[in-house]
Amino acid sequence: MSKSGRELIPELKAVLSSRRYSPVVIGNYCAYAQEFLDYLGHRGIMVADVTEAEVARYLCDAVALFRKRRGRNPGKRWHEIPQSGIHALLRLVQHQWPPAPKATCAADRLRLAICNEYETWLREERGLAWASIDAFLWGARHFLAWQLERSGAEDLMEVSVGGHCKVISGLMQR
Asked: Taxonomically, which superkingdom (predicted)?
């Protein structure tokens, strides 16, 4: 049985507090997460069943509501504020957010395997925060996609995270 919003918001607050988020950020994340839960409730969608498309739809609606309430458009990156709270809520409920990409071919499977190994290295060896890991993984995914387009899967067959993580991290920090 899934938890209700009444149970999820205090749990989200506790998780964020344990990770030493600031009280202001915790308040914002929880407020936006509650609004998202209300949005889902009106549509009869369970939090455990939420997809990236539904989050995107909600954010479009939230921008429209912002415009209606304030008579102007929000800033270019305003959506990142509610999105962060929603993503924290969805990680709490679904245990992984955004959902892992699905492999459609052998090259994708190889890229995903390298990224999974890289994620483990970043978390266990480097001890990075989830936000940092997400940023590095985003860069790694795009770098590997570019590399696959440029030279094919043959060049990536020899890549292993153990020997190449420092190289991948260095490339993405440039």
From this structure: Bacteria
